[in-house]
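PROTEIN DESIGN WORKSHEET
SECTION A - STRUCTURE
LENGTH: 499
TOKENS:
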């Protein structure tokens, strides 16, 4: 019985627990609320996510762990350290912004999106995403990953009778289930070889695996990494992204682009840097190649989205997110070559925070434009400055941030941080590939930015933003401007002992 867990540290688990409890409250309340009062469910969800995010503040001072083994209190299944808090801040803050976009999207969709189911699934996924970075054993890691992923499938396909939505959900489901199956097989091999699921113990024991089990352990490592590569939408496992983003409700596309990536990358960091540092000579080169392929395929795919044709703005953002995933992989690969892997991981966290803020801002503006233009094509942004100058300026700012150009200093700083991580690790060739991809990305980001200020063809369409969408745009804009003025704030937030 020595493997039984100790008492629960409720403060440590409060952020994901609050999101989960509010999800259950919304599900029950949906049974009793009249149809006319269903919009209240959205505001309950927003309040719950805000409360969950606020519960991160008491956890800033010290690391806290719970669900520890009775025989060894240093080996725990849940740890709230700085790494956990950074990812939970990104997840819960991003989910809060997506919830604000969802409040308007649900109101506009009428009967097509059932509110009770939507908010229950949304909060359940957010709870799983907040749990994952705190997971310190492989079983909890997989459970958190599936709690975050399974509701997302349903959210993508929740528009009943919409063929694109159903097709997007099916592609997302099949790719994710395949990834989960591969990961579980790999984890089972690692467990057989090491006799443990706790990440720190796996790191200790996998170095001294018996000769007969060495091949099994190596196969398990490869399969586990392949499974997480699916989750991060790394090439060649990215094929589901464009169609899924276009077919999903726009707030869910925004959610997947930021929170979905945070889930995949935090899991990948925990598996590689924490559990498998002794296999760095295998996973580091593989991740470096994946990073180069992913950023190249993503940026070339985005480059093909011509503004003069009927290309979807969301599809362009989807390809852009694939390219950004490549940049996020660079510091993780660098951690395998570096003498200071925590610094490299900190670069990924800093980039993820900066990318999350401006990418959600771009999706928020897309939500606003999509109210007037149902197809939400890139061409629909032509002349946005003439009808809504502030919205156009903010969209231009977000795009320049993603491109890494002034005045989007936050984007430039993020790319320099990742570039430095590659150079410091001796990955000069990867830094060159990244530099080339940054130039490729400039073309489509600047092309879209220039379109905002061109003369319109025909009668201009006014874009009136509901309060929740306006708040989401304002929050991301303020965050982007503040961090462009003081980007070192992000590095200070992430530059702490992570594990």
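SECTION B - SEQUENCE
RESIDUE ASSIGNMENT:
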């Amino acid at each position: 019985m020595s493997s039984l867990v100790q008492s629960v540290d409720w403060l440590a688990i409060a952020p994901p627990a609050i999101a989960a409890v509010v999800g259950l409250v919304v599900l029950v309340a949906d049974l009793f609320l009249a149809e006319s009062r269903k919009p209240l469910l959205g505001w309950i969800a927003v309040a719950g996510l805000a409360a969950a995010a606020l519960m991160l503040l008491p956890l800033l001072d010290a690391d806290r762990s719970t669900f520890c083994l009775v025989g060894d209190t240093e080996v725990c299944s849940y740890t709230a350290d700085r790494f956990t808090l950074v990812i939970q801040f990104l997840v819960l803050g991003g989910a809060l912004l997506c919830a604000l976009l969802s409040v308007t999207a649900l109101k506009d969709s009428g009967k097509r999106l059932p509110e009770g189911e939507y908010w229950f699934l949304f909060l359940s996924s957010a709870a799983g995403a907040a749990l994952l970075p705190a997971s310190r054993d492989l079983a909890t890691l997989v459970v958190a990953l599936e709690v975050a992923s399974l509701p997302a499938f349903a959210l993508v396909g929740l528009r009943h009778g919409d063929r694109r939505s159903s097709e997007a959900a099916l592609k997302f489901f099949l790719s994710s289930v395949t990834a989960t199956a591969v990961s579980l097989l790999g984890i089972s091999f690692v467990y057989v070889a090491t006799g443990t699921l706790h990440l720190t113990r796996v790191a200790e024991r996998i170095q001294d695996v018996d000769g007969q089990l060495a091949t099994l352990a190596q196969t398990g490592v490869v399969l586990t990494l392949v499974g997480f590569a699916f989750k991060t939408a790394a090439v060649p496992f990215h094929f589901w992204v464009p169609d899924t983003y276009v077919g999903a409700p726009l707030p869910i596309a925004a959610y997947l682009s930021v929170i979905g990536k945070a889930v995949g990358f935090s899991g990948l960091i925990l598996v590689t840097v924490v559990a498998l540092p002794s296999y760095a000579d295998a996973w580091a080169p593989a991740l470096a190649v994946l990073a180069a392929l992913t950023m190249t395929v993503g940026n070339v795919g985005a480059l093909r989205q011509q503004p003069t044709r009927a290309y979807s703005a969301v599809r362009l953002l989807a390809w852009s997110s694939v390219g950004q995933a490549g940049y996020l992989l660079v510091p993780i690969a660098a951690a395998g070559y570096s003498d200071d892997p925590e610094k490299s991981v900190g670069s990924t966290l800093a980039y993820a925070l900066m990318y999350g803020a401006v990418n959600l801002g771009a999706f928020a503006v897309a939500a606003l434009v999509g109210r007037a233009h149902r197809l939400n094509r890139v061409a629909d942004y032509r002349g946005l400055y003439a009808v809504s100058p502030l919205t156009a300026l903010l969209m231009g700012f977000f795009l320049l941030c993603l491109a890494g150009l002034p005045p989007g200093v936050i984007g430039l700083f993020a790319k320099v941080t990742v570039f430095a991580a590659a150079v410091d690790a001796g990955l000069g060739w990867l830094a060159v590939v990244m530099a080339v991809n940054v130039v490729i990305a400039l073309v489509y980001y600047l092309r879209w930015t220039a379109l905002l200020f061109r003369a319109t063809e025909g009668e201009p369409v006014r874009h009136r933003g509901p309060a929740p969408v306006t708040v989401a745009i304002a929050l991301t804009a303020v965050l982007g401007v503040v961090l462009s003025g003081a980007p070192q704030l992000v590095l200070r937030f992430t530059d702490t002992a992570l594990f």
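SECTION C - NOTES
The two ends are 28 Å apart (CA to CA).
Residues 279-499 form one domain.
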